[in-house]
Task: structure prediction
Amino acid sequence: MENKIKKEFLKYLNAIISQQSLKIRGNIVDENGNFYPKRSAFPIFKKYIQDFLKFNSEPRWIIIHGLRGVGKTTLLSQLFYEVLSDKDVEKLYISVDEPMRRFGASLWDIVEGYEILIGKRLEELNKKLFLFFDEVQYDKNWDSAIKTFYDRTKKIFILCTGSSALLLKKQIDANVSRRAYFEELYPMDFKEYIMLKFKKYPEKNLSEKIKGAIFNSKKSEDVFNKLSLLEKKVKEYWFGVDIFEIDRYLKYGTLPFSLKIKEEGVILNQLELMLQRIIYTDIPEITNFDRESLNKIYSLIYLLSESFEISLTKLSTILEISKDTLSLIFSSLENANLIQRIPPYGSPYKQVRKPYRYLFTSPAFRFFLLSGMESISNFENFKGKLLEDVVGMYFKKILRKYPNSSLTYDCAKEGANFIVKIKDKKIVIEVGYGKKQIKQALMTLKRITGDYGIVFSLDEEMNFKDNIVKIPIKYFLLI
Result:
């Protein structure tokens, strides 16, 4: 960095440090000065910080990744402002994109400038140092830079966020994986949506009891009986909750930024901007696509919004691109956390031959894409698709806590939406409402010799027959 630019950069960095509390406060309060409520992940990261403050414990380098719009910047700001404000420590919060854009300044330049301003090198610090870096992917060498900071002193704690795709690529790097702890921030579940919007909380352990009934039973009758015992508690939770909140949640409530915006049209505009940034900013950092290919990614996700599974051969013909390029595109969309791939049930040979099923990791993006099509004017026409995205989103998070688990779908004609395998247990899952869903779950249950089947229904009634239990979606949303 040239001396003239360096002087300007140091002035800029000094202003950032002197005003950081004021600027960060702007990230966590509304127009009336009220603090945004905290997501359920907040206490987890707060404990990491407190443990380091008290015991100098690991992890002291944490990487938060997740889909754009899930609230990574807000979480980082809340942790910095509300946990560290009154602590006698050194601290720096900076969004890496701004100094990179204005001065071409890397993380090396930022930390070197910080050392100049405080008059000490990292190794000479008497106090603990907290470095909060937002959007680290803007520095191509962010991983090697942070690794060096981490190794220079045990008095340093680093929390950084950025694009899932780029950060997760480094998870397989031994130099990073030995030091850093990767934590995914997921889209909001329904309980969190209601908690943040209305400050309403379910009874303690209700979620675990519903989850236990669904995943730890022997047959559908056991599921039914266990959930029947919870009926009173479930009704108590839903008392006073507008039933239309389910619709709002399915549309865009999985992304916390939507809670701050009243107009649906403004939310849709934000979703479009986020989608453009994923396609034209994040994905080119993962794979070197040309502009024409990037434009075709947009066409591809429109096709995916209308259908859950499409063969590569058919897509290759429609989009006029090779299967190899299509495979790279799908991989990039997964790495960017925009879509979730569900393989077909069966042997590896079958999984290669049959099409994958693709869900959106947040139904908000499917809602945006479908709501913009003239052929679809009624929300009820695609409500079932959004609901399936939500169920897949829940399973992605839940099954990570179950060893030897998998999530597949039945690729046979009129097969079930999901097959959940936990150890040796196979649970057939169908999503929707009406007799058709029960029939499909039963057919798959017999075909794979499953343990029991579940239909998550938009109906209110719960019952069981032929080892299939129909459960109102109101129960599932409380997991």
Observations:
- The chain is about 50% helix and 15% strand.
- The two ends are 52 Å apart (CA to CA).
- The chain has a mean pLDDT of 91.
